[in-house]
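Kindly inspect what follows.
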Amino acid sequence: MSLLRRLESSELNTASDSISRRLRTLSPAAATDVREAYRDLKSRVQARLVAELDPDADLGAREEVEQRIQELFESILAQENIILSRVERKRLFDQIVAEILGYGPLDPLLEDPTVSEIMVNGPTRIYVERQGKIERTNLSFDSVEHEMRIIERIVSRIGRRIDEASPMVDARLPDGSRVNAVIPPISLIGPVLTIRKFARKPLTAADLVNHGTFSPEAMRFMELCVRGKLNIIIAGGTGSGKTTTLNVLSSFIPADERIITIENVAELQLQQEHVVTLEARERNIEGKGEITIRDLVVNALRMRPDRIIVGEVRAGEALDMLQAMNTGHEGSMTTLHANGTRDALSRLETMVLMAGMDLPLRAIREQIASAIDLIVYQERLRDGSRRVTSITEVQGLEGDVIVTQDIFRFRRRGESAGRIIGSLEPTGIRPRFVEKLEARGLIVPATLLGLSETLRERGE
């Protein structure tokens, strides 16, 4: 500590500066010494705090625990005669609280509303996504062990584990943010952590319209489709915003319907009252107890659902989902990864085959054409914006080909200041499922589809 005190009382003694700012004025060797001294101080104070805190204390009562930490913190600094400026004292206290109650250096990123994704590539490289662009931060973990403690804290809170025997895990934060962690020996650069943040306040239909994801007409059209119990697939690449769109579309489901959501890791934030949330479970350390998405889909059929919403289909559960859609569970929705509308259909065929059923390809396509009414395809464009680029009707099967028709299509008009200019516009095509919507008392206005008269007046 003598080094830190010496630096504190010499050229670094500016009350309003933090250590991170002062390091820029030192030689590399001196800066390294200050970092090591500060890290040693933080570790010692934190170790004493953890040792002196009541092990039976309720860490959920954050305000009370913070007050106790504050008292111990001041006492320890006084006992060891550690002299810090006001700013550095607060910085050290905040970091220690984050270590004990939060997620260490990730806490400020989780609190930052401009950050949509956090990517940790080993202990010293932390990246974030802001407005669709990736940038590196100046934050870091102290060591691999430090990063592993935070990862274990995240996954243990939902009853999952990560170790050499199980080096990959999906988890979630209390606010629903999606977490994926990969550790050695799978990762060769140290523990890798990816956090897809969810907005504290769930996005609404108006938010997606304001962000340009949907046009007002397309959003109104989708509201009618959801209320009319069409079966909908939301397809797109990684990070294109599929889950957010699924959340928003689910908000159109009437409040008097029983909804069952099925996810690998619970992320959906439905606002209706009658919602049953099911989450898959990984096998335990003995290799037993696994409950898959497919198991949950099959079980959900026995739970008297009005709607089944699957967070994402990835494998054989696609067959069970299609069968549910074809056996009276209309209005079901799910997402899947795909590079386009046709690719989404091809991936569905592949996933059905993964169920292990020896079905002919035509039978699978008949199931798909009969079950799916609408495919919403979403992309993350070059400028980082997330846009729905097509809303496509599945019209049926002709021969061995599933026939589709775009109802809305994204029209690009150019670029301005690095932003892509365009909107989701109707193609002027009348969907075949309009009669189904009208039978439920839902009239599609002509203006939504780019037609000059109402569909009822056309007599089509």
Q: What stands out?
A: The chain has a mean pLDDT of 83. The first strand starts at residue 115 and ends at 121.
